[in-house]
Amino acid sequence: MQNDPMGQAALDYMGGKRGLSIRVRSNIAEDDQIPVDYLFRTFNEMPEIEQKALMHCKGKVLDIGAGVGCHALYLQQKGLEVDCLDTSAGCKEAALQKGIKSYYQVDFYKFDTNIKYDTLLLMMNGIGLAGTLKNLDHFLQTLKKHLKPGGQILLDSSDLRYLFIDEDSYMMVPMENYYGEVIYTMKYKNHKTKPFPWLFIDPALLEEKAIENGFEFKKIIDGPHYDYLAQLILK
């Protein structure tokens, strides 16, 4: 449970505490707060992008970066077989208390299984696990290993170009790195992560990278603010 801000916050919430939030700090914007009750949202409380993603899930599903399992719980209730995957011990404990049936607490890159999935679900900008644009090819190839032929990846992301074109949030475009590469830290009480890289990617570049790595690309829906839901189908 050391340095597990999201997991500890989830367990406090399960213990009846309310009004909690997780502080998020990045190298591109002011500090933000994640309300802990948002981690436990129901289907009706989810943004349209997440609802659409869940409606497109089929077969055996691996929910990568599952957190407390709000997406997986909905899919379970719809009769789908779902495995959750996350590194947080606290989130796993909270998810199991909520009724999640299968949860792997392990780093995605160390997830070793012979199971092949019909759907890989990566919500809340789950493609951010790639970390950097340079590592995206490796990330996509690792995802491929867990897919059945014809299987799909459902993911959402955002095009951060608005940070450089909106008057209210104007910034200089970085010269050395892709503008969607962000460094985050998260803190809750005395739990704090080390700085970690997180990737946001524009849909045109994602389509290019998906095709290069053997996927068909389809953008399912645009969100209200430069965000979108994409489907990558293994050829």
From TrEMBL:
The keyword Zinc-finger does not apply. It comes from the Bacteria. GO terms for molecular function: methyltransferase activity. Keywords: Methyltransferase, Transferase. GO terms for biological process: methylation. CDD domains: AdoMet_MTases (cd02440). InterPro entries: SAM-dependent_MTases_sf. Transmembrane segments: none annotated. This is Class I SAM-dependent methyltransferase. It comes from Carboxylicivirga linearis. The lineage of its organism: Bacteria, Pseudomonadati, Bacteroidota, Bacteroidia, Marinilabiliales.
